[in-house]
Specification:
Helices cover 58% and strands 9% of the residues. The chain has 97 residues and is mostly helical. The protein has one domain (2-91). Helix 1 (2-25) crosses helix 3 and helix 2 (48-60) packs antiparallel against helix 3 (65-83). The longest helix has 24 residues, at 2-25. The chain is globular, with a radius of gyration of 15 Å.
């Protein structure tokens, strides 16, 4: 029973964290000033990939694994709801210098 409770707490914490991050990044005062995108070899790494990493860490550890797994799923679910598509890595056009 405790594992399910921890999983749900982690899920809600992940959703809250994703929405809070989106609010801070899109705040007009900070818009364009906070470097929020990670590009590696012309691929944009979305933060739902971080949620996937949290799920893998939760599967490999015994220390609060339910909360960590729930947190990862919360990030992925919230990011998918906001962007209306499940996206981890996206190929982007090369920027001309």
């Amino acid at each position: 029973m405790n594992n399910w409770l921890f999983l749900i707490v982690g899920l809600f914490f992940g959703i809250f964290t994703d929405y809070f991050w989106a609010f801070i990044v899109n705040w007009p005062k900070h818009k364009g000033k906070i470097p929020v995108t990670v590009h590696i070899f012309n691929h944009h790494i979305h933060h739902s990939t971080l949620g996937l990493i949290f799920i893998l860490i939760g599967l490999l550890t015994d220390f609060y694994s339910s909360i960590i797994i729930g947190f990862g799923f919360g990030i992925i679910i919230s990011h998918t709801i906001r962007t209306k598509e499940l996206m981890f890595i996206e190929k982007v056009k090369r920027r001309e210098k």
